[in-house]
Structures are given as C-alpha cells and as structure tokens.
Amino acid sequence: MPGFEIINEEERVAINNIFDEGGILFAHGFDSMRKKFHVREFEKMSADYFKCKHALAVSSGTAAIKIALKALNVQQGDEVITQSFNFIATIEAILDCGAVPIIANVDNSLNMDPNDCESLISKKTKVILPVHMLGVPAEMNSIIRIAKENKLNILEDNCEAVGGKYKNDYLGLIGDVGVFSYDFGKVITCGEGGMIVSNNTEIDKYAREYHDHGHENNPQFPRGRDTRSIYGFNYRMTEMQAAVGKVQLSKLDLILIENKKRYDAFSKNIPDKIKIRNIPTGSQPIYDTFIFFTDSEIEKNKYVQILNSEGFGTKNLPDAMEWHCSAFWDHALSPQVVSHSQKTRKLLEKAVAVPIWLRKSESDYTRLAEILFNQ
Ligand SMILES: *Cc1c(COP(=O)(O)O)cnc(C)c1O
Q1: For residue 182, which atom of ligand 1 is closest to its CA?
Q2: Verdict on whether the full-model pTM lies above 0.85
C-alpha cells in the first residue's frame, strides 16, 4: 500500500499553496477570504475518477463506515454481517451504531465466503458489509444475489482496494454505498481521511449532513443560520488533507500500473506447486499484496524470516493478525462469534503476505521469488 512512498514536492507545494490562497484550513465558508475549496475539489475529482454521482470526503475510513451505516438506517439491535479477515474498524463502526456484528468466515480468496454469509442471515439482518481485503475484490455477484433475495443493503468496505474493479465497476460502487480510507498505510493517502461514494442521492444527503453536525449547507443562508433536519457529528475533512488527497489521487493510475509490474515479476517466478490466494474471475485487484499459503508453521516462519531479512516485511499476514482476524476480538465480539471465526484463523495462520513496494524494483521482486522458493 504505497501512496506514502511517493510523497514528494507536489504534496509539499499543495499544502504550502493553501497559505497563499487565503490560509483557510476549513472546508466551509470564509468565501471572501479564500481562493479555493480543496475539499470540494477533491470530492469532484473523486466523483469523476470513480465515475459516480456522489463522493463525500470525511475524516477517516472508520468514520466513513459509521456514517454509511447511519445513512442505511442501521439502528440499535440490527445485525450487520461482515467478515472474519477484516480490520477492527469495521466492527467498531457497527458497534458504535448500537448494532450487532455478525461475522462470516472467508474462503480461499480471503474475502467473504458468500455461503457462510447466507447461512448467517436472520430476521434482524439489515446490511451485508463485504471488505475487499488487501487489494482483491470480493465475489460481488453472489453477495448481490443474497442481498436481493433477502432485501438487504450492501455497504462495501473498500478501504484496502481503492482503484480496484469488479466486472468494469469501481469497487465501492457495486453495492448501495462504499467507503475508502486514505490513512497513511493505504494505496493513496492524505495522512488520515476517508471517502463515501455512491450513486444514491438520499444516502449522500444523509451522510453529508450527518458528518457535519446536521448542516444542510443551504446556499440561501450564512453558515450560522444554516437549516438542519437531523443532528449529526463532526467527521469533516480539512483543506490540508484534501490538498494532499488531490495530488495523491492524480498518482493513483501510475501506482496501479507500477504495482502490477512488480506483482507480475514476482508471480511469474514462483513454482506452480505454491498455493496462492484465489482471485475472483472478472475482477481487477490493485496488486499491492501477493498472498500465498504454506503447509506448516515451520515452513511459514522460514518464509517470514526471509521476507524480513530481505527488507520486504509481511504486512498484516502474519505481522498484524491480531488486528485483522476476528478470532482475536473477544474484547468486542460475543464468544459465539469469536469461536465461529476460528476457521478463518486456521486459514490465515498458513498465509504469508508479500507487500508490493514502489521503492522496490521489478528485478527486486524477481530476485525475491528466487530466494524464497529455490532455497
Ligand atoms: C484502514 C481500514 C479501515 C479504517 O480506515 P481509517 O482511515 O484508518 O480509519 C477500515 N477498514 C479496513 C478494511 C481498513 O483496512
């Protein structure tokens, strides 16, 4: 997830320019003092890039998930089905709405197992929340079918696969609403930040008001006398984040191309016998991680040791499993849900994630494959 690796003069200039344009760091108002509205421009640029009607910039990916759940009217006692290979933020957002997280296992794609998801649906289920983990799209066809048959909404957590596609559609725009994260570890970054994307005007309207204390930003009134019909919270993005976000978004095409070159250099050079993560047909990953499975703990540790000594690291598998596998989350989930996740834990314990870094070259990845598999 390399956006931070190519931060350069462009981001520096973008931040500095704000101070020549009036120095307004806030997204709204101060019209006479400012020359630019960076958050608005970032939203417009995002809607154009991802070919959607609405893009709303917010303070983080976690905030984006919570706002999207609120916009889908998730309430106290509702159930939201998400998945066992994930990041804790998704569960936190569900809990913060007073709802109950239900966790489906993942299959060999390391994304939501549609069959397990279907078996967990109850009368209380309101939303299915698939997560496109580590760059690879979830099997959306099946998830859409299940959602339709059961009259459920879909919120796509696309924090980890911004720019990926499933059958020609950008991830995040296949379900009812999608969210991105721009935290410092993600494929593009503004330090902290998030985006809510959709083609649904009602969802966008609610989200826009909720993330800004209920402000309707009614053009007929100054902000101090603005109209409102709901209360909300403060999950706004700042102008500094948006100025950096615009530059990073302009680099996304390049990042995706460069990722794929390195990914291909690695994958071309691994032996056929190595079992790799399934990638759904018709999907376009962002190629920022290559995941393969090992046969034993000993074998896995050998690979991890090489990845560390060669300066690649292993990202969240197995590096940060405890933050990414729900089998470890007894501080937030019921014992029943935690024990259902043990199946995923067993699968992930055999998996090794190779991060694709932009600062490493294609030949570094060719060489890495040789070192790893010809020992
Ligand atoms: C990063 C991430 C989030 C949270 O995003 P933040 O911007 O860090 O709040 C949520 N879900 C997944 C899958 C993530 O990887």
Answers
A1: 7
A2: yes
